Amino acid sequence: MQFTLFCPAVRARSVHSVRLILKQGVDIDYCGGYTKESALYMAAETGQLKMVRLLLEHGARPDLMERTAVLAASETGQDECLKLLLGSLTVPGAIAEFFYHQEIEHTHAHTHIRAS
Hints:
With 116 residues, the protein is mainly α. The chain contains 7 helices and no strands. α1 packs antiparallel against α2 (15-23), α3 packs antiparallel against α4 and α4 (49-57) packs parallel to α6. The longest helix is centred in the C-terminal third of the chain and has 25 residues, at 91-115.
């Protein structure tokens, strides 16, 4: 029951509701729905700095899944969330995230050149 309320509470930007749901013991890193996005991903993508901080404090993993919360914050220009997320990564996680972004930029550059 808690999970069915968890993601909508994140989308609704209700920090208070999310706190209450977290106290109930929801799986903070569960990625559900069609897009398989975690709550942290959703919060980072929409620039919810307080929510990102809350989720990180409760153990949410910023490097979870192929489309990470770090990538979401980066792609949508959520710089404050991105700084917070990068600061929470372990050194190996940060290095992996850096190389992941380098590969995306490299692929995007080649796609753009071919389209021109």
